[in-house]
Amino acid sequence: QVQLVESGGGLVQAGGSLRLSCAASVSIFSLNVMGWYRQAPGAQRELVATETSRGDTNYADSVKGRFTIARDNARRTVYLQMNGLKPEDTAVYYCNARRSSGIFWEDYWGQGTQVTVSS
After folding, report:
1. Could you tell me whether strands 10-13 and 4-7 are parallel, antiparallel, or unpaired per DSSP bridges?
2. Contact, 19 vs 7, CB < 8 A?
3. What is the pLDDT of residue 9?
């Protein structure tokens, strides 16, 4: 089992910045992919950014150039630096970890942290 604990959400004005953190209960070397997803009220959960254990990153078009994902293996933590926040970034942000057993994938989720961007 992998436990993920997010922190860093809050209320910020448009144009501001926040940094989300996701601490894992295991070494993140063992986690093939770590990422952030978000879910706005009435909407489906969507991918924000992911980073593989090799350092390959992937971003949603809507956040490219504004958000940066980074893994800190020593701290077992993945971060999401969010700059230039917009009201449409308002959502609950979830940390995700994926681990391959070689046969199937295991998915783990954090409890979510609220990000609210005021106009």
Report:
1. unpaired
2. no
3. 96
Say how far apart CA 38 and CA 32 lie, in whole Å.
20
What single string gives the DSSP state of each residue in 65-99? Answer: TTEEEEEETTTTEEEEEE-S--GGG-EEEEEEEEE
Q: How confident is the model at residue 38 (pLDDT cuts 50, 70, 90)?
A: very high
Total number of residues shown for the chain: 119
Nearest of 94, 103, 101, 78 to residue 27 by alpha carbon: 78
Q: Fill in the DSSP letter of residue 29.
A: G
Is the pLDDT at 5 greater than 90? The verdict is yes
Angle 73-56-53 from CA coordinates, rounded to 5°? 35
pLDDT surpassing 90 at residue 4? yes
How far, in Å, CA of 105 to CA of 19, rounded? 28
- Given this model, what pLDDT does residue 83 score? 98
**CA–CA separation, 108 and 22 (whole Å):** 12
Residue 102 pLDDT class (50, 70, 90 cuts)? confident
